[in-house]
TrEMBL record:
Pfam families xref list: DUF1289
Protein name (database record): DUF1289 domain-containing protein
Organism encoding this protein: Mesorhizobium retamae
Residues covered by region (Disordered): 57-77
Length: 77
């Protein structure tokens, strides 16, 4: 079984102004359809995420699980 790449950082909250998740930048529809999307479809969405995340109103206030794990491994100061 092959792992499916996901931009999820376990900060699951939707910005009501943009409709994008504060953590990953996907829409609710994209999140719910993620496992059934083709690899090409997921790559297309992932290419748009940095631009989307720049438009959300606020950033998460808490440390994400991914950041904490990287910090604990010494990858982030």
């Amino acid at each position: 079984m092959t792992a499916i790449e996901s931009p999820c950082i376990l900060v699951c909250s939707i910005d009501m102004k943009t409709g994008y998740c504060f953590g990953c930048g996907r829409t609710r529809d994209e999140i719910s359809a993620w496992l059934s999307m083709t690899p090409e479809g997921r790559r297309t969405v992932m290419a748009e995420l940095p631009t989307r995340l720049a438009t959300v109103e606020r950033k998460p206030r808490r440390e994400t699980r991914r950041t904490r794990m990287a910090r604990e491994r010494g990858e982030v100061n």
